[in-house]
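ok new one. same drill as before - structure tokens go in, u give me an amino acid for every spot. 364 of them this time. try not to just spam alanines like last time pls lmao
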């Protein structure tokens, strides 16, 4: 099946697989067993239980029962990266974003998601009945204590401290067995997505909330798209400032070749005519253009931009053919301005350095 465009918790797959095998995946400090969640109606809710206990349940139903809840603690920061309800130990075939009524995951853009907001530093899993009991208990305390009542967090806080401040298997007053499994939400407040892990038989093997702690692997195609986006404004500037003149003088449309690197990448932008090429070789570091080299080539011969200006007597107020950082845009503008104004003088200078070589006569 085709993968959806929305964000997926791919990093959870090796972490869960290692845990099932009795091992610990890279980047995982420990895995806490927080107890079992009781599902009575099959209608599961994931939310910040202090801020939005009225949040609706997900559309997909779970089979009623008791299921273990595992919390995956990251080495970095010692915070909870994933919270999982494990319905079965089967391998995950694919993930489906958990959605509420009216939400359509197919409408999401690339790496987007639907999630629940956190403002109290807590997430939870609960059957909708358990959260109804929590709301009733909260309302009863407010009525009993009046203006002196703080919040329901005063009830939960001692229970959290008993578990190192990380999680609590909370049973609201009036509950007949239903519980609210609460846990710290990664690094704190934010918006967090929940997913159903579906096995090969099409059954729900797990439910997992990602707190965006573990780095998600990025495909090479995604890295290439990101690199193309980084260079797009610079390519547009070259086209505007230099390309128009070159194409009006018989050069081809530009050919752009990208090379992805771990911290950025490279761009070769080339215009050609009769074996002569104008080339811009640029580098990007993270999310910005870090430098560019403007040059002419024919075969293996290379002529840095500026030499043709010197030969033609055309001023070019640039120290070299190498631009650093944002100066690459300034270089493009200045080079383009001279080409547009003095092409008749500069073209012969280029050809003087890089002439068209006559083919060698065949030997008899």
């Amino acid at each position: 099946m085709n993968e959806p465009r929305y964000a997926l918790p791919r990093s959870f797959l090796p972490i869960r697989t290692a845990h099932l095998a009795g091992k610990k995946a890279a980047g995982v400090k420990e895995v806490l067993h927080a107890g079992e969640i009781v599902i009575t109606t099959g209608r599961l809710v994931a939310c910040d239980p202090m801020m939005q206990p009225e949040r609706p349940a997900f559309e997909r139903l779970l089979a009623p029962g008791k299921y273990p809840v595992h919390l995956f603690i990251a080495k970095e920061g010692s915070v909870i990266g994933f919270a999982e309800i494990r319905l079965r130990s089967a391998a995950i075939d694919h993930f489906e974003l958990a959605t509420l009524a009216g939400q359509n995951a197919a409408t999401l853009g690339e790496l987007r998601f639907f999630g629940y907001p956190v403002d109290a530093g807590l997430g939870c899993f609960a059957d909708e009945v358990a959260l109804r009991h929590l709301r009733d208990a909260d309302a009863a305390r407010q009525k009993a204590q009046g203006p002196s009542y703080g919040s329901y967090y005063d009830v939960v806080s001692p229970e959290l401290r008993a578990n190192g401040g990380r999680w609590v298997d909370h049973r609201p007053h009036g509950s007949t067995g239903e519980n609210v499994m609460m846990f710290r939400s990664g690094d704190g407040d934010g918006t967090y997505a929940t997913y159903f892990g579906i096995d090969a038989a099409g059954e729900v093997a797990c439910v997992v909330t990602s707190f965006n702690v573990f780095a998600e692997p990025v495909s090479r195609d995604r890295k290439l798209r990101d690199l193309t986006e980084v260079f797009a404004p610079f390519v547009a500037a070259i086209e505007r400032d230099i390309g128009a003149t070159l194409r009006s003088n018989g050069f081809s449309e530009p050919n752009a070749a990208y090379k992805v690197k771990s911290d950025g990448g490279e761009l070769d932008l080339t215009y050609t005519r009769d074996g002569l090429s104008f080339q811009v070789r640029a580098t990007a570091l993270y999310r910005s253009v870090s430098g560019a080299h403007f040059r002419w080539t024919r075969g293996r011969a290379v002529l840095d931009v500026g030499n043709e200006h010197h030969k033609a007597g055309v001023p070019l107020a640039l120290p070299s053919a190498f631009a650093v950082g944002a100066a690459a845009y300034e270089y493009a503008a200045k080079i383009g301005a001279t080409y547009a104004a003095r092409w008749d003088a500069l073209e012969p200078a280029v050809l003087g350095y890089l002439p068209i070589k006559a083919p060698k006569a065949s030997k008899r």
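Residues 6 and 108 are 6 Å apart (CA to CA). and btw Helices lie at 12-20, 128-145, 153-162, 220-248, 307-312, 327-353.
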